[in-house]
Amino acid sequence: MQLSKTEEELMNHLWKSEKAFMKDLLEAYPEPKPATTTVATLLKRMTDKGFVAYTLYGKSREYYPLVKKKDYFSKHVNGLIKNFFNDSVSQFASFFTQETNLSREELEDLKSLIDNELKKK
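Now predict its structure.
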């Protein structure tokens, strides 16, 4: 299951705060802030999709994520590699390094990350 762009934006606020009431989530948005009903609708959809749950305190709900940010984006990236790069990590890496205008320093950092991962294996 996947989140829409507006749901992802709200989820990012929730991941950052870990737990939040509706007023906290609304405060996290820049101006112009979305309507309370809009955020409530997004939270309902995200709850139905299994991304968010809440604890009830009287009439107030404290929302919290059920899915870790790392897990969500890992699944996203793996789907991207599968669907757009024929399930080839090297095609993805080639595209990423050639089409994103990375500086020499950024490429060196990537190389260092890859070298460190190779040492672990």
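The longest helix spans residues 104-120.
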